[in-house]
Design goal:
649 residues, D-amino Acid Aminotransferase, Chain A, domain 1
């Protein structure tokens, strides 16, 4: 087959759109039609193409546009834009490839996107053609779910006034789409899936009065320097081992945003050899730093969305398994409801006059584990199969029982805390084994034991859980059954004092297992450590009567040589080590006052045999006029063991 003469022009175009595999000088990748290469391709410039949108209809595109959009799908799959899901990219790529095949444009597989798309290209789209002959009962779950996504894509296009046609040229009507959708929804519900996305008519175009408002709303930076790089990695000439990220979060910040930010950064850095960790301070950095991310408001296209039937659900959530646990299939695991409480006064209103299982709260990765015969699968709470990264743990799981089972639990490394698990995220992404010998599995629930048991009470499930053969690596999470407010508080205290405990999780023992975070039957309480500290400096805020405080502890002269001098100051004729700055408080104190500070975590930083400590999420508790000493280094070391980590810089 002849090649275009102006091959350099095509190569230049490929570089502009980031598509490296369009044409090879040895073998053309595609752009073949009846044995010839279109001369228009050599003349084509990407400026002729509109921005890539999810709602494009491939059969409306020219050959040049198909080529462009196909290349962009491959680029998007490797570096996914924030507003495109994986499903968006795979679905549009599949439709584009089918359209290319209709036009005799050769497509040769070459990367992961093509491998994923093969699943959806392996059956003919003509199956969705005639509602009278279409038989969803003959399709497997994967194909049926994909057909459902296609039907919704067709519906969205028809709602926008676009004309769609079948492969034979016949026009696709709304009536057909509704009939297809009814058949698919009925079949999926019969298979135990819950349907949450009915087809609804759009309410119409956006009125001028709405546009008069929305046109005035522009992209805006909400919080500057929302994520920054701080610490020795940014300031030391010699390359240190750890990378510190400061996030501008406080106690009132939405937990899901904080979690999403940390997970997204961790995934971006999954192949970085250095260790990295996160700390929070709503005021931002107080020392040298490198800006990384702002938190922004990004303008969306103005359109009227009909939320009837809870339509605002991502495609991958159109159907959620509700009625049963199926071996080998990931499900959305139950999680404690809402944010954790930190103080008893916040916790008390949640405690009812019922029996609770009060359990040790762990700091790791929540997983569900399926064991069927000699096969083990480990799923993250995001439904990702992580089994490949934990080869020795998978072998140990097989020894728990000869029976088939599904359990909920937490992966916890012996050292390094939750951040030590970041390496396994990268291993999963690269589909490679990792050294998991130091990772333990704590199990707290069982939802399947030779049959689905998630509808049994927690008390019944705990009894079945005892049948597993636990070891020093796979552990039955400690718990106590109690009833009554005082006994619940005593149990929380006991669970919080256990080694490596972050606090306690309270669960109604009479409740069945539910999916996700929607049930108030489970809730969590995080313990706070108490430090006797000295106020170093009072900082008035912009809010009248509200303050921040720099605080620290006194260091005896015989221990000064152990402390990193950068964090030592002369204060009140003594040496003091600064630990951090409190959140906003209306409590008033002056430099030199002894106070109690509550913290979530305390980190011990070690560099060149010198140490310092940093307090995380510190809250001003109360003045302590009754004492004249601060906590000691020994006290701080005990807190590090309980709710902290050691960081080697």
């Amino acid at each position: 087959m002849p090649l275009p003469k102006d091959i350099e022009k095509i190569e230049d175009w490929k570089r502009k759109i980031g598509f490296r595999e369009l044409v090879s000088k040895q073998t053309p990748y595609f752009i073949e039609n009846a044995g010839t290469v279109s001369s228009d391709v050599a003349k084509f410039e990407p400026t002729e193409i509109n921005p890539v949108k999810k709602g494009i209809v491939p059969n409306d595109l020219t050959n040049k546009e198909l080529i462009f959009y196909h290349g962009k799908m491959h680029v998007f799959y490797k570096e996914r834009p924030h507003n495109w899901s994986k499903e968006d990219i795979v679905n549009l790529h599949t439709l584009i490839v089918k359209e290319m095949e209709k036009r005799n444009l050769t497509h040769k597989n070459y990367d992961d996107l093509d491998e994923v798309s093969k699943e959806f290209l392996s059956y003919e789209s003509e199956l969705i053609k005639n509602p009278k002959t279409y038989d969803p009962s003959k399709l497997d779950d994967r194909v049926l779910l994909d057909d459902h996504r296609i039907i919704h894509a067709w519906w969205s296009s028809l709602q926008e006034g676009k004309e769609l046609r079948h492969a034979d040229g016949a026009r696709i009507t709304k009536k057909e789409v509704r009939e297809f959708h009814e058949q698919i929804a009925k079949e999926l519900e019969q298979r135990g899936f819950k349907h949450s996305t009915p087809l609804e008519e759009l309410l119409g175009n956006v009125e001028d009065r709405i546009l008069n408002i929305t046109d005035k709303l522009k992209d805006a930076v909400l919080i500057e320097n929302f994520v920054t790089m701080v610490g020795s990695y940014t300031t030391e000439k010699e390359k240190p081992n750890d990378v510190d990220f400061l996030l501008r979060f406080d106690k009132s910040s939405p937990e899901f945003i904080e979690r999403a930010t940390k997970v997204r950064i961790a995934k971006m850095l999954d192949d970085v050899s250095e260790d990295f960790h996160f700390t929070g301070d709503p005021e931002g950095p107080h020392d040298d730093y490198v800006p990384i991310f702002d938190l922004v408001l990004k303008k969306r296209e103005s359109e009227l969305i009909n939320l009837a039937g809870d339509k605002n659900i991502p495609p991958e959530k159109y159907f959620e398994l509700e009625k049963k646990i199926v071996l080998g299939k990931a499900y959305l695991p139950q999680k404690p409801y809402g944010s954790a409480t930190y103080e008893i006064k916040e916790l008390l209103p949640k405690i009812k006059d019922i029996a609770y299982s009060v359990e040790k709260k762990l700091n790791g990765f929540h997983v569900t584990v399926h064991k069927e015969g000699n096969q083990v699968k480990i799923f993250s709470e995001q439904l990702k199969d992580m089994t490949v990264a934990f080869p020795t743990l998978a072998q140990a799981i097989k020894q728990l029982s000869d029976s088939n089972f599904v359990v909920d639990g937490e992966l916890v490394p012996k050292t390094g805390g939750r951040r030590a698990l970041a390496i396994f995220v990268g291993a999963v992404k690269r589909n490679k084994k990792a050294d998991d010998r130091e990772v333990r599995l704590y199990i707290w629930d069982i939802t399947y034991y030779n049959e689905d048991i998630h509808n049994k009470t927690l008390e019944e499930r705990k009894e079945i859980l005892k049948k597993l053969h636990f070891s020093d690596r796979i552990i039955n999470t400690p718990y106590i059954y109690v009833k009554g407010r005082e006994k619940v508080l005593q149990a929380i205290k006991k669970m919080s004092e256990l080694k490596e405990s972050e606090g306690a999780v309270l669960k109604d023992i009479s409740a069945s297992y539910t999916f996700g975070e929607g049930s108030s039957n489970w809730f969590k309480h995080r313990k706070l450590a108490d430090i006797h500290a000295v106020i170093i400096k009072q900082i008035p805020t912009k809010i009248s009567g509200t303050y921040n405080y720099y605080f620290g502890i006194y260091i005896p002269e015989n221990l000064v040589s152990r402390i990193n001098p950068k964090y030592l100051i002369d204060f009140k004729n003594k040496k003091a080590m600064i630990l951090g700055k409190t959140f906003n408080t209306q409590e008033k104190a002056k430099p030199g006052d002894i106070v109690d500070i509550l913290i979530e975590e305390l980190w011990r930083h070690r560099k060149d045999n010198l140490i310092r400590y940093s307090a995380h999420k510190p809250r001003f508790k109360m003045l302590r006029p009754d004492i004249n000493k601060t906590s000691s280094l020994t006290d701080l070391d005990a807190i590090v063991v309980s709710v902290g980590i050691e960081v080697r810089e």
